[in-house]
UniProtKB/TrEMBL annotation:
Any GO CC annotation of this UniProt entry: early endosome membrane
Entry protein name: Polyamine-transporting ATPase 13A3
Catalytic reaction annotation: putrescine(out) + ATP + H2O = putrescine(in) + ADP + phosphate + H(+)
Name of the gene this protein is made from: LOC115022998
Organism: Cottoperca gobio
Transmembrane spans: 26-50, 230-251, 404-423, 443-463, 923-947, 953-972, 993-1015, 1060-1077, 1089-1109, 1129-1154
CDD domains per record: P-type_ATPase_cation (cd07542)
Length: 1238
């Protein structure tokens, strides 16, 4: 395989794949056809299930250029295989953005989705131009086209592929496309629609029925019918039909819901600009990248991704982010440094209108329309990619499912032994060939339980219902099990740990380079005419929607604190002016100095003064989480010059100001506020040159505006911690779940909030890792700052305690990292990043993409990561985490797998509790179904030794009345009311679970063999005949010589061994169900699961009644023979002792000896301690038992299985970790050792 040509597509992306080329091979196809005939179609099924075999079995390898069929394999951990057919289309160019001779392309071929001839349109005007033959294939709703230059298939996303600058989009792509060019590009990009095709019921049925599980069931049903087990076969068919119908209904419903969600407003009429400046109406499905569309003033649901080139829009992006706060989108910069950058959707989100989002309002120039250039269409859009991820989800990487397949293979191995045993035994007893085949195959159907998948899914379905009752909605049910394994949860701060709304604590203005005393009220009369209040009143992105102010909560709070009024122009007012009609803010009448005078003269003066306070917002640079600031250009009525106002993170604003305007006490004052947990915002101002006109301002870049500012002062906002936060974090810490804060806020504010909510405790020290990038031939460096400990102020002789017992270590220090430092450390200190995140608790000033990177780093050291945020800036991290939960009012959001309508983090413990309960339920059900198969296998194998078997109605009673009822009711245990420190096991192939299953198998085997042998030793025992009456025959009259004779009928169902094993095995099913259905510490006790308890009590009662007081009708139905009462009492004793032994073994061996002594003590053995060498003889004597058992179970000195535990052990012995206070680590040092103290 490695020597053959292999190409990589989507390189370095999430959906990266390897591709091989193949072409059909006639002789291979003939061989497959012959094999399919002789195997009865099974070979075709095998090739359908395994695409790799299907392609290699029918095709030969060839170059990618000549391939007719492609074999694709994902490069992630799942290594999924896919096959795709190569199609051919004809086009006048090879790439969508090729320039064409318009005369020769006045009419284009329509293109083709399959291998075809050239269309008739090649004739006439197009005849002299030879169309190009283009190979392409479609995979997961995405087309990949062959590129002769790179000799590989490539994906055309949209206008981004050109790597054009922002200025180029404004100059070269703002006039629109001709109809001809639009038609040409549509050949490559297709119709602009996100087509969710709802499959027909017939297609869904075929796909569902071809599932390996149902094929196995079909095989079983055919086998049972051949064996005349019609009743049981009918019951299985009935259950399968119900299962398939339910599955089809659910899948069809999901497709219809997704189709309806996507189809809503997806096809609209739009105004499109043509190259000759004509505007025409067109359907949105005709749009292609490069088209210029007009955004109507009354809004629109965007049918594509487009970048604004003229005007401003107010957009609701809740469909994508789950956050309903309106966002302001501005036009793309057309000059300056910003305009020279290449356009990228991720970096220019503030200028991009995304498909599916709702444009509420537009702002525009008189005579100029709000225009946007189409960037992406169809499935390439942000909405399209979200829909693709729903249509084609990645497999859930959960060890339980992988282990379940391994376990099933073990059962198949056991079935293989029984298969061989049956054949050998039958041949020795000269059984007819037909019977040998049927009975040997029957062993396989017994060993692999047909109801296993349905029973395994039940626990997840019940958990999903319970989550819905507490306001948590799930769009990915398989992830519920993942929640049970979470050992680390990242939290956003604002709106998640703290209240969403901010309260204004006060303002502190700066005058002549020094701070004035703080003021509690920004609406003070003395501040009305100051630049500080003008900045508060204008530097925001608020807008009026239906007469109500809407926008960012912080902006709302800040603006309302000024008491000013915001007025927006109407469409009529905008049309009357040549320049843009600005949004105007003004103080209320009573706030203007002298407003309390009543005479006519002062009233006229008052109007004049009021007018002079009005400020028009001319240009807005929206807040950028990357830049951590926003700014506006304004003009006060009556003044000739304009002003620029800036607000943002204090550290950022201070760097953009003239140094003499920044107070010398700035750092100390900021630290004082942030240490108290206040959120601080800095304001700045700059008077612009009077020669700047309105239109010229529109073309300026923010880099030119946001420089040489004058520092105005600080706004101090109080962000209160939610009532539930501290309690939830304490609960998670006690449950051995690590918590992190990932926020865009200030570092010291984040540390203060972390201390206040208990994420960092009072006695624990915080070490700030302040990293600087390389500069002026100096290498990148990290400076380690130790913050003051509120309890212990000494900075030297740091003690670092790590206790790895039970997988949890107490840490006496935490790292705190800023987004800037995180980027530097990731790039220049890759060997330190894992060590750092192992102990880092606070991540401040983190950009949205950095949050996603952090989740990936944590996952790389084997943490199972949860993420809880508000859905706005956290979308990437929410989707990347093993379990993302968005706090949103929406019932379901594509932003994350889980959405909680509760606005606080109390949903996190609820989700983890339900996840743990679902995991344990899955294990319980799997263990029970495995034991059910083995118990039935043992019974049948023993009966085969006397050429007998269980009866049709006995199978029916066991499988329907006992197994199905128990399997579905044992999943109903609710989650335990509190989180415990221990996590449920994540693997079926683990010591305690394997020991649990094996001890129960051995116990059941011993008691079945005991009963089987004992019944044959009874004095009344004889070969049963219809005339036998063991209940009434005297013991003295029995003849032992009759014990070994041939059976009277070919099935030989009715006999004493069958009856005995039926009774014993029936009680064994119930015993293991009760033993495996454990409650505390992850689920509520079984006695609170009343359907399960009623089922068990009812079945126990029924079985005891028919065993002790036989009912002829029931005995006849179940094909049970009459046995003496003494033997019935003996059977009661046997099943009672069996249940007691099974229960004692489970409690004693699995729960006490193995879990508490072996697997837990092993963690203590792994931890090197100084005391171990100095252990007293008594301690050594006390430890010999666990040590011996650990040796017996190969657990001695076994290293931790997860990487973060390895790192913790390494760092425990590292003398230079954590770094000493005020030291610097340089990137030039290969070991990245601390090289110099400051």
């Amino acid at each position: 395989m490695k020597t053959r040509e292999v190409k990589i597509i989507n390189q370095h992306l999430e959906d990266e794949m390897e591709v091989w080329g193949y072409q059909p091979c006639v002789w291979k196809m003939i061989l497959v056809g012959v094999g399919a005939v002789f195997s009865g179609g099974l070979l075709l099924l095998l090739l359908y299930w395994l695409p790799e075999w299907g392609v290699k079995g029918t095709c030969t390898h060839t170059s990618m250029r000549d391939a007719h069929t492609l074999l694709l394999r994902t490069t992630d951990e799942f290594r999924q295989w896919f096959r795709a057919r190569v199609h051919v289309m004809w086009a006048p160019g090879r790439k969508p953005f090729d320039s064409l001779d318009l005369q020769s392309t006045a009419q284009l071929p329509n293109g083709d989705c399959g291998i075809s001839a050239v269309h008739e349109e090649r004739q006439g005007k197009f005849a002299h131009r030879q169309p190009a033959q283009i190979h392409y294939f479609t995979h997961h709703s995405t087309k990949y086209y062959w590129n002769d230059v790179i000799q590989n298939f490539e994906l055309y996303k949209g206008l981004e592929d050109l790597k054009v600058s922002c200025a180029s989009i404004q100059s070269d792509h703002s006039s629109g496309l001709s109809k001809t060019l639009q038609d040409y590009r549509r050949l490559f990009f297709g119709e602009n629609e996100i087509a969710v095709k709802v499959p027909s019921l017939f297609k869904l049925l075929i796909k569902e029925v071809l599932n390996p599980f149902y094929i196995f069931q079909l095989f079983s049903v055919i086998l049972w019918s051949a064996e005349d087990y019609y009743y049981y076969a009918t019951a299985i068919v009935f259950m399968s039909v119900i299962s398939i119908a339910t599955s089809l209904y659910t899948i069809k419903k999901q497709y219809v819901m997704l189709h309806d969600m996507v189809a809503t407003h997806s096809v609209v009429r739009v105004s499109v600009c043509r190259g000759n400046k004509d505007i025409e109406q067109a359907m949105s499905t005709d749009l292609v990248p490069g088209d210029v569309i007009i955004i109507p003033a009354n809004g629109i649901i965007m049918p594509c991704d487009a970048v604004l080139i003229h005007g401003t829009c107010i957009v609701n992006e809740s469909m994508l982010t789950g956050e309903s706060v309106p966002v302001t989108k501005t036009s793309l910069p057309c000059s300056g440094e910003d305009a020279a950058w290449s356009y990228k959707i991720e970096e220019h989100k503030r200028h991009t209108l995304f498909c599916g989002t709702h444009v509420i309002q537009t702002r525009f120039y008189a005579g100029e329309l709000v225009e946007a250039v189409v960037v992406r269409t169809g499935f390439s859009t942000e909405k399209g990619q979200l829909v693709r991820s729903i249509l084609h989800p990645k497999p859930t990487d959960f060890k339980l499912y992988r282990d379940a397949y391994l376990f099933l293979l073990c059962l198949v191995g056991v079935a293989g032994i029984g298969f061989i045993y049956t054949i050998v035994l039958s041949i020795m007893n000269k059984v007819p060939a037909k019977t040998i085949i049927i009975e040997s195959l029957d062993i396989i159907t017994i060993t692999v339980p047909p109801a296993l998948p349905a029973a395994m899914t039940a626990g997840i379905v019940y958990a999903q219902r319970r989550l819905k009752r507490v306001g948590i909605f799930c769009i990915s049910p398989q992830r519920i099990n993942m929640c049970g394994q979470l050992n680390l949860v990242c939290f956003d701060k604002t709106g998640t740990l703290t209240e969403d709304g901010l309260d204004l604590w006060g303002v502190q203005t700066a005058v002549d380079g020094s701070f004035s005393p703080p003021e509690a009220d920004a609406a003070e009369e003395s501040l009305v005419n100051t630049a500080f209040v003008a900045c508060m009143a204008t530097c925001h992105s608020l807008t009026k929607i239906d007469g109500e102010l809407a926008g960012d909560p912080l902006d709302l709070k800040m603006f309302s604190a000024t008491g000013w009024i915001l007025e927006e122009p109407t469409e009529e007012e905008t049309a009357l002016h040549n320049p843009i009609m600005p949004t105007v803010v003004r103080p209320p009448k009573h706030c203007v100095p002298g407003a309390n005078q009543n005479d006519l003269l002062t009233q006229n003066m008052e109007l004049s003064e009021l007018s002079s306070c009005e400020i028009g917002i001319v240009r807005q640079f929206p807040f950028s989480s990357t830049l951590q600031r926003m700014s506006v250009v304004v003009r006060r009525l009556g003044e000739k010059h304009m002003n620029a106002y800036l607000k943002g993170a204090p550290e950022v604003v201070a760097r953009l100001c003239k140094q003499h305007t920044v107070p010398q006490s700035f750092t100390d004052t900021l630290e004082t506020y942030t240490k108290q947990g206040f959120r601080v915002i800095a304001l700045a101002h700059r008077q612009l040159e009077s020669k700047l006109s309105w239109h010229k301002v529109q073309s300026l870049t923010r880099g030119l505006i946001e420089t040489n500012m004058e520092f105005l002062g600080l706004i101090v906002m109080q962000n209160k911690i939610k009532e539930e936060t501290a309690g939830v974090l304490r609960e998670l810490r006690q449950a051995n779940i690590r918590t992190l804060m990932v926020t865009g806020d200030n570092m010291l504010t984040a540390i203060s909030v972390a201390r206040d909510c208990g994420m960092v405790r009072a006695h624990e020290r915080v070490i700030i890792a302040d990293a600087a990038p390389p500069k002026d031939f100096h290498p990148a460096s990290i400076t380690w700052h130790y913050t003051e400990n509120p309890v212990q102020t000494s900075k030297d002789n740091q003690t670092v305690e790590m206790n790895l017992e039970d997988g949890m270590y107490e840490q006496s220090y935490h790292f705190a990292v800023t987004g800037r430092a995180f980027a530097v450390i990731t790039e220049h200190f890759p060997q330190l990043i894992q060590k750092l995140v192992l102990k880092a608790t606070v991540f401040a000033r983190m950009a949205p993409d950095q949050k996603t990177q952090l989740v990936e780093v944590l996952q790389s050291i084997d943490y199972t990561v949860g993420m809880c945020g508000d859905g706005a800036n956290d979308c990437g991290a929410l989707k990347r985490a093993h379990s993302g939960i968005s706090l949103s009012e929406l019932e379901a959001s594509v932003a994350s797998p889980f959405t909680s309508t509760t606005s606080n983090i109390s949903c996190v413990p609820n989700l983890i509790r339900e996840g743990r309960a679902a995991v344990v339920t899955s294990f319980c059900v799997f263990k029970f179904m495995a034991l059910y198969s083995i118990i039935q296998y043992l019974s049948v194998t023993l009966l085969y030794s006397i050429l007998s078997n269980l009866g049709d109605f006995q199978f029916l009673f066991i499988d329907i009345a006992i197994i199905l009822i128990i399997a579905f009711t044992m999943s109903l245990n609710p989650a335990w009311k509190e989180l415990v420190w221990r996590r449920p096991p994540s693997s079926l192939i683990s010591g305690p679970l394997l020991c649990s299953v094996l001890t129960q198998i051995v116990t059941c085997l011993l008691f079945q063999v005991l009963a089987f042998l004992l019944v044959r030793q009874q004095s009344w025992y004889e070969m049963w005949t219809p005339q036998s009456d063991a209940c009434n025959v005297s013991r003295s009259g029995l003849s032992h010589s009759l014990n070994v004779t041939s059976p009277h009928d070919h099935k030989n169902i009715k006999n004493y061994e069958n009856t005995t094993l039926f009774y014993v095995s029936s009680f064994q099913y119930l015993a293991v169900a009760i033993i495996f259905s454990k409650g505390k510490p992850f689920r509520q006790p079984s006695y609170k699961n009343w359907p399960f308890m009623l089922s068990c009590i009812g079945l126990y009662t029924f079985l005891l009644l028919i065993m002790l007081y036989p009912v002829p009708a029931i005995d006849s139905f179940l094909e049970i023979v009459c046995v003496p009462h003494d033997w019935r009492v003996t059977l009661v004793i046997i099943v009672t002792v069996n249940a007691a032994v099974s229960f004692m073994l489970e409690i004693l061996i699995v729960d006490i000896i193995l879990r508490r002594l072996v697997f837990r003590s092993n963690q203590r053995v792994n931890r090197p301690t100084e005391r171990s060498s100095a252990a007293t003889p008594q301690e050594a004597h006390d430890r010999w038992g666990p040590s011996f058992l650990s040796w017996l179970f190969c657990q001695t000195n076994k290293p931790p299985r997860v990487l973060y535990m390895h790192l913790a052990l390494e760092l425990q012995d590292a003398a230079d970790w954590p770094p000493r206070p005020s030291t610097v680590t340089y990137a030039s040092d290969p070991q990245s050792r601390i090289s110099a103290p400051l």
